[in-house]
Design brief:
The complex is a heterodimer. Chain A is an all-alpha fold. Chain A has a domain of about 90 residues. In chain A, helix 3 packs antiparallel against helix 4, helix 3 packs across helix 5 and helix 6 runs antiparallel to helix 7. Chain B is α+β, with helices and mostly antiparallel strands. In chain B, strands 4-3-2-1-5-8 form a six-stranded antiparallel sheet, with helices on both faces. In chain B, strands 6-7 form a two-stranded antiparallel ribbon. In chain B, strand 3 and strand 4 form a beta hairpin. The chains are: A mainly alpha, B alpha+beta. The interface between A and B is large, with 84 and 128 residues.
Chain lengths: ~150, ~575
Amino acid sequence: MHTSRALLLGTLAATLLTSGCQLISASITSPSDSVSGTGHAIGGSSESISASSGGKSDADKASYANDMREYVASFVRSGGATSAFAPGATRIAATHGISNWEADPKTAGAIGAGLADAKQNEVQAQAFCSSQGFSSDLSKQVVSAAKKNAS
Amino acid sequence: MRARACALALALVTAATPSGAAELGFVYVRANVGGASGGHAALVAGGSVFHVQSGADGLVRLTRDGWDHFRYLYADLQNRPLEVAFVALAPESRQRVLDAPPRLYVQQEIALARRDEARDDVSWLEAWRDGRALPELAGAGLLAPERANDADAAALRDRLGAPLAELTRAAQSELARASTGRLRELREALGLREAWLALDAAWGLDPRALVALPPELDPPLDDAERAGLEARAGELERTLASLLRSNRADRGPGLLLAQARYLAVRRSLRENRLVLLDPFEGAPRMPVDELEMSASAHASAVAHAAAVARRVRAEVLAPTRVDEPGYTVLEEAGGMLERVASARDLGALFDLGRRRLPARGRSVEAIEPTGDRDAALRAAQERFAAAERALDERYAYDLFRRNCITELVRVTDEAFGSPEGTAAALGGRIAPGEIFGFIPFVFFDAVRGRLRVARVARVPSHRERELARIAREEPGLWPRVRESTTLLSTVYEPLPRDGAFLLFTDDVFWRRPLYGLANLAWAASYTAYGVAAAPFDRGARARAGLSGVFWSVPELVFENVRKGSFEWVSTEAAPP
């Protein structure tokens, strides 16, 4: 099925190694004809900002919590150094526009859920909070969320 | 009309499903000249799009976009029709697929953070070795030491009542204990020291850290906005108090940002105009030399950006709303509007799929820590090389084995733990690594042929929508002839990046080889002209001609890739 088309486009694609699914990204360090149009910058950023201003969609609300949950679970499973946790969490939170992640209302639940995903029991969750120097309020909320997600 | 089309497109993607069922959309983005010339693919659910792209650093990156943004970039600006195959599945199966992209994203962020830390270590050690200024410290450039004793900053310091001298001494002690083997901790201590100094000495805002809007785009604050800013100032004071109590060693940049934001809010209230930090200042950017759009298109773009900024301002400055992500978006809207209006530094605006906090840096003084610098540098270089290798092994782009399609297949497949689990959940399976499976249309054929597809929706490209409008408004042969050629089209303006071509071939089939032949002849002639003009345009026309020749070849055998693209497409997403 479609083998001739596949061969044709496969050959074309192979010839154009630089035209893969290129990233429309600020991380690009060299010019790329394919994405350098100023319309991409203007129109793309307008649309992105316009869509994000409300921050009301379920996806927006869940996105930060999902990422933080995954980060915590990955961090604990990989046995990362205690001092490396906060910088990683800060990095993840920053991509959601959050600088003071300890105070964000979604953080405690996300950390607790991540600890539960990493099979941490109540004692281990408490130990994690202590090792990170969380405030007693944040620690309580995290442990509570870990228990809730474990059950 | 356009608003209706967009609403329809969104409805197609977010449509409700029969009770108890859920849908997952597989998006096929058709081919066009430029990035993803063979096409592209994505997953869509609940208004969010997940897709994998590759950057010039050679790594694939998972991107999460809103549907509107994705559609605008691909269907409007890149002028590619989209097809979405909706697979019916159980809600829990859909959730398993949607849980997979954050996992991939976070794992990649952890690997990137490891690489970045090693790279920073190398940069700092090299700076000490060479006697150069130290690399910039994130956030330190938001405030200016030479603007000490700022009245608002002094009042803030007095209200917070923190033992700043003591905290500064503690940070200095931490710095004294630093060694070449613990450079992250050193940078964190430096960040804290700068934050305590800034609070203690009441540093004011650095003007270079602010957005500069033209007066006509910077209306006075109204009463509701003033109330919203007062609420924001209170929230920022609470943030600072919370960070003062925190034990996080890396909270220096957060403190600097909160102080700078507080001062920006206070100045806004004093001057009765919005003063914002610029989140793009000092951030990485893509090189963009000049504005590639007509004056009228630019005016439309400015009007649109201003409308977006107005709407964001009204939403975010509501007195009851004090969430930080919303305020970050407001800063982005200000930074965007400044750049769009001035048509400068547009390269900073690419990729706003993720938020960006203001973090203007500044090089600060720091005594070199104790330890064997050369040995530490060698170790840091080895860590950096190892981190780069690890990233390459896991995320390096490979046209055949790791591209936007293969990673999407992998993400979907791995979500269910086993081939049987995947087949049960989706009604079939597309295995990673299948022959020709890296080609977008082959992948989409497999989706339609093997998975439990409930329906397929099509989102037309911008030109297709415009042609439909013209057909309604101007029936007859001449408009069709006019719009079929790049020379006369009222919809399309030739762009060098599309290559030189004469006739559109995406909306014809039997005539395609004939049109392709005409395009080939046109592009060959254009190449010859370009060669003659090369001394004046540095070969730009010659390159466009050669590109035109290349992309005419598939048309000779009935295949269309080239569709033209647009620098600006008016949008009605924002209110007038």
